[in-house]
Amino acid sequence: MLSTDIPPPLDVDPARRIFGLETEFGLHLDTGAARPVTPEEVAGHLFHSVVQWGRSSNVFLPNASRLYIDVGAHPEYATAECDTLTDLIAYDKAGERIVHGLVAGGEERLRAAGVEGTIHLYKNNTDSAGNSYGCHENYLVRRRADFKAFASALLPFLVTRQIVTGAGTITRTPSGAHFSFSPRADHMWEGLSSATTRSRPMINTRDEPHANAELYRRMHVIVGDSTMAEPTTLLKVGATDLILRLMEARVVLPELTLAREMQAIRDVAHDLTGAATVELADGRRLTAVEVQQQYIDLVRSHLGGVIAPTEEVDRILDLWQRGVDAVRSQDFSGVETELDWAIKHRLVMRYRDRLGCDLHDARLARLELAFHDVSPERGLFNRLQDQGLARRIVSEADIERAMTVAPQTTRARLRGEFVTRALESGRDFTVDWVHLKIAGSSGTTVLLKDPFRTEDARVDALLDALYPA
Ligand SMILES: Nc1ncnc2c1ncn2[C@@H]1O[C@H](COP(=O)(O)OP(=O)(O)OP(=O)(O)O)[C@@H](O)[C@H]1O
Ligand SMILES: [Mg+2]
C-alpha cells in the first residue's frame, strides 16, 4: 500500500524555519606506499563499515542525517532538519566527529590491503589540485511566484557576507601570496542557476523542496565556506535567516543590486583592508563594509517588529557588528576567537613571523590544511578551541547526543526513530528526506511532507510493523 494521505499542515509559526547544512570533506591519504592509491580506493575503505550496516555508501543515520560519498570521492554529511541554530551547530559538529570516526577503520582496511598510511579528512573548501567543494546551506521558505527575484535580492548580501563569515585563506598568485576572506569566492561563476557542478551558482534554484511543494521552497545557498568556529556558523546562518525573515515579511530591502556579481565577490574576497568598492547597478560604488552595515541597520530597525528580540538575535547582531567593525578599523582583535578568517589569520601571521618566511611558504600551506583537519588531536582548529582560543556555542554533551539522537523538534525525529528501530530489527528499509519505507513486506511507504511534524500515527504503525507479531 502506498499511503499518500497527508495530515493537514500544523498551524506553523511563520518565524519557524527548517535549516540544514551539507558539508563535503576533503580526503587525503598520507602514505609512502609503493603503489598508487586512488581517492576512490581510500573512500571505499573509509566507508567499509558504513556499507556493512547500511548496505550502501549513501545512508541515513540514526541521528536522521545523511552520510554519503559524493562524486570525486568526497565524503558528504548533510545534517538532519533543524529548527534552531544551536541544534544546527550541534548536528554540524556531530558530522565532523562521525566522519572522523570512520578513519581508524579505514586505515586498518588499507593496512590489510598492504598500504600503511594516515587518512586525513578536512573540513575545508579547496584541495591542492584546485578543486572546490562546499558547504551548502538550506533554508525552508514559503513558496512564492517570484522565487527567482526573491533569491536574486539576496545576492548583494551573500557576495559581501564573506567579510564576516568567510573561512579565510592564503591565496597564491604568480606575483605573490596574500590572505583573503574566502577560498570559495574564486570558484563562483554565476548568481543563480538550477545546476550545481557545471555552472557553480551562489544559489541553486533547483525546485526540490523536500517538503509540501505547494507551500514551500528550499533556498539552497551554495556560495558559503565551510566554517569551523561555532560562532561563525551561528553568524553565517543566523544573519542569512534574519535577512530572509525581513524579505518574507515584504520589508523593502535597500537598493544594492550589484553591477557585476562575479567581479564583486572576487574583489571583496581579495581585499582584507575592506577598502575595495563594488559597483552597484545604479552606478554607485560601496565597500563591502558599507553594504553589510546597511543590512545590520535594517535588521536593527525591525527589532521588536518583524524580528522578535531574543538573546540569540542579540548575539548574532553583536558579532555581525564587531566583524564589520574589525574590517573597518583593521583591528581584528575583537573577533579573533570567533570568526574563522580572523582566527586563521592570527595563526598564519604568527607562524609567518616565527618562521621569518613569506605567505608563499609551503609550511604555511600545510598549517592552513591542518587547521581544517577534523581530527580532535591533529586538527589545529580543534586544538585552538581546546585551548580556549575559539569560542563555543554548544556543549560537548550537545554534540555527543547529536551524533546518535535526531533533533526532536522537526520531522527528523520520526526519521531518527525509524532508522534506529529498523537497524535494531535487522529489517531492510529505505529512507530519504521525505520517505520512510520497510523494504519487501507489503511495501508500506510513509510520505512525510511536513518538515515541522514530529508526531505521526502512520509512523507509529510503521514502527509496529518492524516487529511483526
Ligand atoms: N524542507 C526542507 N527545507 C530546508 N532544508 C531541508 C528540508 N528538508 C531537508 N533539508 C535539508 O537539506 C539538506 C539536503 O541535503 P542533501 O545533501 O540531500 O542535498 P540535496 O541538495 O537534496 O542533494 P545533493 O547534495 O545530492 O545535490 C539537508 O541538510 C536537510 O536537512
Ligand atoms: Mg548534498
UniProtKB/TrEMBL annotation:
Chain residues that bind Mg(2+): 22, 68, 76
Protein's pathway: Protein degradation; proteasomal Pup-dependent pathway; Protein modification; protein pupylation
Other comments on record: The reaction mechanism probably proceeds via the activation of Pup by phosphorylation of its C-terminal glutamate, which is then subject to nucleophilic attack by the substrate lysine, resulting in an isopeptide bond and the release of phosphate as a good leaving group.
Family: Belongs to the Pup ligase/Pup deamidase family. Pup-conjugating enzyme subfamily.
UniProt xrefs under HAMAP family: Pup_ligase
Described function: Catalyzes the covalent attachment of the prokaryotic ubiquitin-like protein modifier Pup to the proteasomal substrate proteins, thereby targeting them for proteasomal degradation. This tagging system is termed pupylation. The ligation reaction involves the side-chain carboxylate of the C-terminal glutamate of Pup and the side-chain amino group of a substrate lysine.
Name of the protein this chain belongs to: Pup--protein ligase
